Amino acid sequence: MMYNMSEIIKQLDVPNGMTKRMNCPVCKGYKTFTVTNNMGKTIWNCYKATCETKGGHRVHLSVQDIRDAITPDVMDTGEVEFTLPDFIVAHGFRREVMNFCELWELDADELDLHYDVKEKRIVFLVKDNGVIVDAIGRSIANRLPKWKRYGKNSLPYTHGCGKVAVVVEDCVSASVVGNDVYVGLAVLGTSLSESHKEYLSRFSTAIIALDPDALPKTLAFAKELRGYVNDIKILRLKDDLKYREPSEVLKLSDDLKYRQQIDIENLTKLTQQ
Hints:
- This protein has 273 residues and is of the alpha+beta class.
- It is built from 9 helices and 15 strands.
- It has helices at 5-12, 63-70, 95-104, 108-111, 171-177, 194-200, 215-224, 246-253, 264-272, and strands at 19-22, 33-38, 41-46, 54-58, 88-90, 114-116, 121-128, 131-139, 147-149, 157-159, 164-168, 182-186, 205-208, 231-235, 261-262.
- It is globular.
């Protein structure tokens, strides 16, 4: 039997930024078929190992879709049950994971990295008091989206057990930054959610260390965190911290002496000159 997948996907009418799960229309697998609308790119895939149903196409984004993508709705921060899907497994020193760790100088065991065998993603676990509440996968096979959240918990991915929070772009940067002094927090988006702010309110000091070309976002984050964090600092970078450029790492290492940081008021004045 032939299936018009485009017509099936169209009838589902998945909103931008959302994923729908259902029985696969081809293999009839129970809840194995997902459809995701990622900024106008609709992707469908069956997770059953014996089914090869997958594909994607472009869809029209409405003005409201674009507005929602820029200022997404705040997710419910209450407890959300989460169980790792069967296709996400412990890294087991898989070649793909080890290559990824070698590239970014990461310790797979320390980070408790997992691997998505279906979509070929390195999986970072989101934990709350040691309990896995969600997972975030980074594609290593040019699959969209580049970063995928598997559950619905709104807690951010963090790494480290220090007393100073460092706000960075993604899970790799958070993993590089996190240690006994710092807690790296991955934003993975264009805005701070309420969960980000509430988590950061646990710290007296937060350092915003985003990509060099993200100055407007950096300024916006600093303003949004007022009232949540007492001491907000901005680290001016020439390269993302995950690249471990010695001069950039030194800036972070010197932060407690405040030699390489400027506060939000001074940076605002600087950008207006």
